[in-house]
């Protein structure tokens, strides 16, 4: 299994990872604001289909190694965005809207137990090419940080990882 996302159809990218820990713990890292805030973004999510919620990001703070974004990405990585729960099936499946309120993309998280570990399949759909250029290295980096945290390791700086991955995803995205 490759850590890199794969374009599975136009406007869709898919990541598959094996995470340390049971499905219930991984579910908490997806739905609990404090746990999610350690690897992605914080924000209380009401556990029901149709509920709206905000996510607050600060990618520099995801590691004690605070590296600012390069000039190319300056001004990114700190934001608040609006989302809606589309599907909520604990502890196996979560789907939320992402981005533009008028024409949002959709992110799904599918969890499957694999012994004492969990297989996570993250699929981000309805992405324009320009968004996919950021979403690819973004999700890849956030998932790397999640694995570090769940493994008890200190994650390296978000922007250092993101920068190393951006060229790969730019070549990969048609």
Task: Walk me through this protein's architecture.
The structure is a single chain. This protein is an alpha+beta fold and about 170 residues long. It has a single domain, classed as START domain (Alpha-D-Glucose-1,6-Bisphosphate, Chain A, domain 4). Helices cover about 30% and strands about 35% of the residues. It has 4 helices and 7 strands; from the N terminus they run ββααβββββαα. Strands 1-2-7-6-5-4-3 form a 7-stranded antiparallel β-sheet, with helices on one face. A hairpin with a 6-residue loop joins strand 5 (about 95-100) and strand 6 (about 105-115). Helix 3 crosses helix 4. The two termini are about 20 Å apart. About 30% of the residues are buried.
How do the strands and helices of this protein lay out in sequence?
Elements: E1 6-9, E2 12-20, H1 23-31, H2 33-37, E3 52-58, E4 78-89, E5 93-98, E6 105-114, E7 117-125, H3 129-150, H4 158-172
Antiparallel strand pairs: 1-2, 2-7, 3-4, 4-5, 5-6, 6-7
Helix pairs in contact: 3-4
């Amino acid at each position: 299994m490759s850590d890199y996302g794969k374009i599975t159809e136009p406007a869709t990218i898919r990541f598959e990872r094996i995470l340390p820990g049971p499905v219930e713990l991984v579910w908490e890292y997806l739905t609990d604001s404090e746990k999610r805030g350690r690897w992605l973004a914080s924000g209380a999510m009401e556990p029901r289909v149709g509920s709206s919620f905000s996510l607050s990001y600060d990618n520099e703070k995801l590691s004690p190694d605070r590296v600012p974004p390069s000039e190319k990405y300056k001004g990114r990585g700190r934001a608040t965005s609006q989302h809606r729960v589309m599907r909520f099936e604990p502890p196996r499946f979560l789907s939320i809207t992402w981005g533009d309120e008028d024409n949002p993309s959709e992110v799904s998280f599918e969890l499957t137990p694999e012994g004492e570990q969990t297989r996570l399949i993250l699929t981000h759909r309805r992405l324009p090419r320009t968004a996919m250029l950021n979403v690819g290295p973004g999700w890849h980096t956030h998932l790397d940080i999640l694995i570090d945290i769940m493994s008890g390791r200190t994650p390296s700086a978000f922007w250092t990882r993101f920068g190393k991955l951006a060229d790969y995803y730019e070549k990969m995205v048609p």
